[in-house]
């Protein structure tokens, strides 16, 4: 899709269809809608008076202008899509992005090839709104039906024009370009998450990581089984034992041009890369098991984010680590009751082989520390319990560093992604005490999401660390007007915003030479 920007008036935008945001209870005889109404021979007033459109979020009305109207007003677009966006007060980047997604999906369905989006974001937000508009449109157009061959809609939007009246057209261009990078990164993550287990093995995932590294210029290292053995990654290897597919641990490194990280800070993103989770010997029930192809979404999120970072070039170093394996039952598989030794030296009693994500993350986190990480964010489809607690609305977040957690929540809030902190008091760690080893890999029925995090905390140690449990938010069971059902790409936008905020904070810090980087603004 060709992406352009324009600060021309709506009549000048040369596209087949224009999508326009309409606020709740907005009148047709005031402000922008008044102009649009005049140019369309009163269509806006007619639609609003008929109460077909009240401006509620997600509502749409689609109209064609007559040739007569068009020639009178000189308006170039012949079709108009009015998109309800809710209250003007609550119109934030999330709503802008959803408006764009809704518009792109609705117009593609009507076989439109070129479209303009008039998102009507506040002027002082123009750059970020341009980004959100493009992100929303690109993410809105993602479809999970890659392997469908019959009755497949081959409609595509070929050209998107972001229309924003702003003094600073360069800012809109920058925003739109950022939006393209971010939206494509999120769709990259979704595409990986959507792949069947047979087409997304650890080997294939590592190849995709290699491709990103060579295409966008990142350092890469992929550890195979031998190197994992040398590193003593007994926890990761214990999960891989049952599978015929060899495990991989990917390391992608981004270093800014100035070398960056003069303050010695090294951010590491660690993502769970279970390319299929059968549960192992503690076999899962068959119902919905096919969904366990998305158990590598944490890893795919790391890859998507690194892909975008390589293009956005923030001024701080970032490292992405993805431990990856299948979790399969077989004659070689780890059995409940087995004791394994993690890279950190801790011994783990494996009570349930289905609690495998924490095992591979234990070694992923230990390896991040070995490579010098000072701040670690891990992300994983870790527990079914998190969707019982938070549903598909909030991602669970826990960790050892409240400042880091607050910063993540704020970075998410800015881009419309919700994170909700669960407590991680030391009392919960009692649930993972083992009779035979240092710890065990499950903590019983109570507080399943928290005890999984308590397990990871044993490996994060005193590092600054936060854990995101995306099991409830990484997959959408239903389609939304702005997005297909299936993988959501959750956390990609938050993490990119987080990294950009951290880079800005580090720049401020080096400019003013204050002894510590600025604290989070909460
Ligand atoms: N991959 C699953 C968690 C999951 C469940 C992700 C549903 C997405 C949707 C994870 O490996 C797992 O099986 N966790 C167990 C832990 C239990 C054995 C302590 C769970 O949540 O049931
Ligand atoms: Zn599992
Ligand atoms: Zn799993």
Overall radius of gyration: 24 Å
Total E-strand runs: 20
Task: Report, as a whole number of angstroms, the end-to-end distance.
Answer: 38 Å
Q: What is the overall shape?
A: elongated
Query: Number of helical segments?
Result: 15
- The share of residues in extended strands comes to 15-25%
Indicate the percent of residues in helices: 25-40%
- The average pLDDT is 96
Uncertain segments: none
Biggest pleated sheet? 9 strands, mixed
Name the structural class. Answer: alpha/beta
The ligands found in this model are:
ligand BES, zinc ion
List the defining traits of the structure above.
nine-stranded mixed beta sheet, 37% helix, binds zinc ion, six-stranded mixed beta sheet, alpha/beta, binds ligand BES, 522 residues, 15 helices
Descriptive report:
This protein is α/β, with parallel strands linked by helices and 522 residues long. The protein is built from 15 helices and 20 strands. It has helices at residues 31-39, 43-49, 67-73, 93-109, 126-140, 169-194, 202-216, 225-231, 234-240, 297-312, 357-370, 385-390, 402-415, 448-460, 492-512; strands spanning 2-6, 17-22, 60-64, 79-84, 114-118, 159-163, 219-223, 248-254, 267-271, 273-277, 318-327, 339-341, 347-349, 375-380, 395-399, 419-421, 439-440, 464-469, 475-476, 486-487. The strands form 4 sheets. Strands 7, 8, 9, 10, 11, 14, 15, 16 and 18 form a 9-stranded mixed β-sheet that branches. A 6-stranded mixed β-sheet has the order 1-6-5-2-4-3, covered by helices on one side. Helix 4 crosses helix 5 (126-140) and helix 11 runs parallel beside helix 14. It is elongated, with a radius of gyration of 24 Å. The two termini are 38 Å apart. The mean pLDDT is 96. The structure holds ligand BES and zinc ion (2 copies). Ligand BES is lined by residues 277, 295, 352, 354-357, 381-385, 442, 448, 471.
């Amino acid at each position: 899709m060709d992406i352009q920007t324009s600060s021309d008036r709506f009549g000048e935008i040369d596209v087949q269809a224009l999508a326009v945001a309409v606020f709740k209870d907005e009148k047709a005889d005031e402000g922008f809608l008044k102009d649009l109404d005049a140019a369309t021979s009163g269509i806006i007033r007619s639609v609003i008076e008929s109460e077909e459109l009240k401006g509620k979020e997600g509502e749409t009305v689609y109209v064609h202008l007559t040739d007569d109207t068009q020639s009178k007003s000189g308006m170039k677009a012949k079709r108009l899509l009015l998109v309800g966006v809710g209250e003007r007060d609550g119109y934030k980047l999330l709503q802008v992005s959803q408006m764009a997604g809704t518009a792109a999906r609705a117009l593609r369905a009507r076989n439109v090839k070129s479209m303009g989006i008039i998102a009507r974001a506040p002027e002082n937000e123009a750059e970020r709104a341009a980004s959100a508009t493009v992100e929303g449109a690109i993410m809105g157009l993602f479809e999970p039906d890659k392997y469908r061959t019959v009755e497949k809609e081959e409609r595509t939007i070929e050209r998107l024009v972001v229309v924003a009246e702003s003094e600073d057209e360069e800012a809109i261009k920058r925003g739109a370009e950022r939006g393209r990078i971010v939206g494509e990164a999120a769709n990259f993550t979704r595409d990986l998450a959507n792949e069947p287990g047979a087409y997304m093995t650890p080997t294939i995932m590592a190849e995709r990581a290699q491709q990103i590294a060579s295409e966008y210029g990142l350092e890469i290292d992929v550890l195979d089984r031998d190197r994992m053995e040398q590193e003593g990654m007994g926890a990761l290897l214990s999960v891989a034992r049952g599978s015929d597919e060899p495990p991989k641990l990917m390391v992608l490194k981004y270093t800014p041009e100035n070398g960056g990280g003069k303050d010695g800070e090294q951010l590491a993103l660690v993502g769970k890369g279970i390319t299929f989770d059968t549960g192992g010997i503690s076999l899962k029930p068959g119902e919905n098991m096919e969904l366990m192809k998305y158990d590598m979404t944490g890893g795919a999120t790391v890859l998507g984010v690194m892909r975008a970072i390589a293009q956005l070039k923030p001024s701080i170093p970032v490292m992405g680590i993805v431990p990856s394996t299948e979790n399969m039952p077989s004659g070689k598989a780890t059995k409940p009751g087995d004791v394994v030794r993690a890279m950190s030296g801790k011994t783990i009693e494996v009570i349930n082989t289905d609690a495998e994500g924490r095992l591979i993350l234990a070694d992923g986190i230990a390896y991040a520390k070995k490579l010098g990480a000072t701040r670690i964010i891990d992300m994983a489809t870790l527990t079914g319990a998190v969707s019982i607690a938070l549903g598909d609305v909030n991602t669970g977040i826990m960790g050892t560093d409240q400042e880091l957690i607050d910063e993540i929540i704020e970075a998410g809030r800015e881009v419309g992604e919700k994170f909700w902190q669960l407590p991680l008091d030391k009392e919960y760690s009692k649930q993972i005490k083992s009779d035979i080893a240092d710890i065990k890999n499950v903590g019983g029925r109570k507080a399943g999401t928290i005890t999984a995090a308590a397990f990871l905390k044993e490996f994060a140690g005193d590092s600054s660390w936060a854990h995101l449990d995306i099991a409830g938010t990484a997959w959408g069971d239903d389609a939304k007007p702005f997005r297909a059902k299936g993988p959501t790409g959750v956390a990609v936008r938050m993490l990119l915003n987080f990294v950009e905020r951290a880079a800005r904070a580090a720049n401020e810090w080096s400019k003013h030479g204050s002894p510590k980087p600025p604290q989070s603004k909460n």
